[in-house]
Amino acid sequence: MAKIFFDAATKGNPGVSAGAVIIITEKERIIETTSLGYLDNHSAEWATFVYALELAKYHDVRNALIFTDSKLIEDTMNSRELNNQKFQSYYLKVKQLATSFDLLFVKWEPRKKNKEANHHAQQALYQLTK
Known about the structure:
This protein is an alpha/beta fold. It has one domain (about 1-130): Ribonuclease H-like superfamily/Ribonuclease H (Nucleotidyltransferase, domain 5), CATH 3.30.420.10. Helices cover about 40% and strands about 35% of the residues. The protein contains 4 helices and 5 strands, in the order E-E-E-H-E-H-H-E-H. The chain has a 5-stranded mixed β-sheet with strand order 3-2-1-4-5. A hairpin with a 4-residue loop joins strand 2 (about 15-25) and strand 3 (about 30-40). The chain is globular and about 40 Å long.
């Protein structure tokens, strides 16, 4: 089962945002970053989650344990209920992408355990705003 870590970084809230994804499989370790545009911090996390699933699908990951430091995303995915309609477009895209996986679990991790994804997101944001 692949392990996927993701995080977003935002300068301002809302502000310029970047995301980072780390996919670890038995065969490889993939690190990718992306510019997310001008988003608030929660939207940036959702956008990075979508990006993580798209990357995993592209790399033929079928089973994944996804780690996030967003309690909002973990709670939404585990309850299968979206409490804030602001994130509906992201949630619907995540649900659509999730059908590409045989197994998909989302687990909350404190930021200190998601350091590498956070580091890459911060570095990508720095490159966008320097």
